[in-house]
Amino acid sequence: MEKTLSIVKPDGVNKNLIGEVVKRFESAGLKVIAIKMAHLTKKQAEGFYAVHKERPFFGSLTTFMCSGPIVPMTLEGKDAIRKVRDIMGATNPKDAKAGTIRKDFADSIESNIVHGSDGTDTAAFEIGYFFNATEISRR
Ligand code: IDP
Ligand code: MG
Q1: Is the Cα torsion angle 58, 112, 128, 87 positive or negative in sign?
Q2: C-alpha 99: how far from chain center
Q3: How far is residue 84 CA from its own chain's centroid?
């Protein structure tokens, strides 16, 4: 069993896609084991995306990520990290495969509806960024 972090980004919340995103993950057999709504400060968005701080889009990305509420969630399942990334589609919606969330709903490479961790180390950091032990289901 593997855990990963996904986020419905401000554009996804604004477009009423919280349920659609959760439905696609659940339909793929992933379990939502933690979920909440949050609204990041600029500093908190910068902390979350610290790995991208040298990238030219860092300022714009972190402004976008604190522009409205978001819905972070922890998902659990076999190959959860890869499954979430497959369901999301490529970063740029123009390159995303048909039937992926980003192909179906994203407006641009920045406003692309959804986040998903890219590896086990980043997943552990990102889950801990939003959820403490009491906020995650132990079933
Ligand atoms: P990912 O979300 O598909 O893993 P990353 O390369 O990790 O993509 O980039 C993080 C986020 O930064 C993207 O989801 C997107 O919102 C934004 N982003 C990535 N590349 C660009 C770009 O070239 N211009 C503007 N925003 C970008
Ligand atoms: Mg990434």
Answers
A1: negative
A2: 17
A3: 9
Q: Is the minimum distance from the CB of 115 to ligand 1 under 6 angstroms?
A: yes
Residue 53's SS3 state is coil
- pTM attached to this predicted model: 0.98
Closest ligand 1 atom to Cα of 49: 10
The answer to whether the CB of 107 is under 6 A from ligand 1 is no
Q: What is the torsional sign of CA 65, 55, 127, 104?
A: positive
- The CA 63 to ligand 2 mean position distance, Å, reads 17
Residue nearest to atom 3 of ligand 1 (CA): 91
For ligand 1, say whether the CB of 6 is within 6 Å of any of its atoms: no
Report pLDDT for 139: 75
pLDDT at residue 129 greater than cutoff 90: yes
Give 69-82 pLDDT, tens digit per residue.
999 999 999 999 99
Q: Which residues make Cβ contacts (< 8 Å) with residue 95, sequence separation at least 6?
A: none
